[in-house]
Amino acid sequence: MGEKFDAIIVGGGPAGCAVGALLSKRGYKVALLEKEASVGGRASSFQHEGYTIDTGSHFAAAFEASGMKAIFEEVGAEMNMVPVTPTLMSFDLETRRYGPLTSKEKLGEDARDDYRAVRKIIKEMTREELEKREYHEISANEWISRVTSNPKVHDTFRRATGFAGASMSEVSAGAFIETMHDAWNSTHVVNYPAKGGCLSFSQALADRILANGGAVYTETAVKQVVIENGRVTGVKAIKTYSAGLTVTKIDFDAELVICAVPGSQLFSIVEKKALLPDLVSKVEAIIAEGTIYCGLLVGVKEELFDGFGDGQQFFQFTVGLASEHWHGLVTVPTYIDRSLAPPGRHYLICNSHGRLPLNRRNESAALHEKCLSALRGIWPGKFDENVEWLLRAEYMNVLYPPRIGRSGPFRPSLAPTGVHGLRIAGDYSYPCGSGYGSALKSARDCVSLIDSSATQTA
Ligand SMILES: Cc1cc2nc3c(=O)[nH]c(=O)nc-3n(C[C@H](O)[C@H](O)[C@H](O)COP(=O)(O)OP(=O)(O)OC[C@H]3O[C@@H](n4cnc5c(N)ncnc54)[C@H](O)[C@@H]3O)c2cc1C
Question: What GO MF annotations does this protein's record show (predicted)?
Answer without folding.
Answer: oxidoreductase activity
